[in-house]
Please model this.
Amino acid sequence: GDGGSGGSPPVEAAPGRSQIFATVVDTFLEKLVAAGSYQRFASCYRCFYKLQPDMTRSIYEQFISQLQTSIKEEIQEVKDEGNLEVLFNSLDKIVEEAKNREEPAW
Model:
């Protein structure tokens, strides 16, 4: 007999990795908002902007807010499903395989 309460602990993504992932996500969202700046948005829809500046602003703000929300929800869903560790492992595998190749792996 083994005796005592052995058993392996529940498999979780390493805190370091999860923390890095969370930071990457936040940075990505910030960069996304910066890249999709209002000036850029307005210039894409210049005609509409000239006719309806207030409406353009409102649409832009709703768009950015929805975008951030849906990205965060997607990420949370992945976390909740517990596929994060699997994802990280497959990423490691891709990185390993990429080392043996000449061309970049996408």
